[in-house]
Amino acid sequence: MSLLSQYHFKGRQEQAATDPNPRIAVTAGAGAGKTLTLVARYLHLLEQGYPLRSILAITFTEKGGAGNAHPHPRCHCPPYPR
């Protein structure tokens, strides 16, 4: 039984959650269900066998970013292997 069966999708949410492309962007207005869609997407990828460490989901709000207009220092992380 799929974990997605517990969700009640509206509009194109189910399409976004189950899209076969492993890389997608979800954009929609306030209250459209983006968080629900991303959680369902996360579960779908896990059910499809994607390793937990290979899944990255990033969310932000315009309101939350309003106070962060100044430049941020760069992350001092090891370079990504090419």
Structure characterization notes:
With 82 residues, the chain is mainly alpha-helical. It has one domain. The protein contains three helices and no strands. It has helices at residues 13-18, 34-47, 62-65. The chain starts with 12 loop residues before the first helix and ends in a 17-residue tail after the last helix. The model has no long low-confidence stretch (mean pLDDT 77).
Task: Estimate the strand proportion.
Answer: under 5%
Estimate percent helicity: 25-40%
Query: H/E series, N to C?
Result: HHH
**Large-scale geometry:** globular
Major sheet details: none
Structural class determined from secondary elements: mainly alpha
Tally of discrete structural domains: 1
Number of strands: 0
- Give the number of helices: 3
Round the Cα radius of gyration to an integer and report it.
16 Å
- The poorly predicted ranges are none
Mean of the pLDDT scores?
77
Distance separating the two termini: 39 Å
What's the quick description here?
The protein is an all-alpha fold. 29% of the residues lie in helices and 0% in strands. The chain has helices at 13-18, 34-47, 62-65.
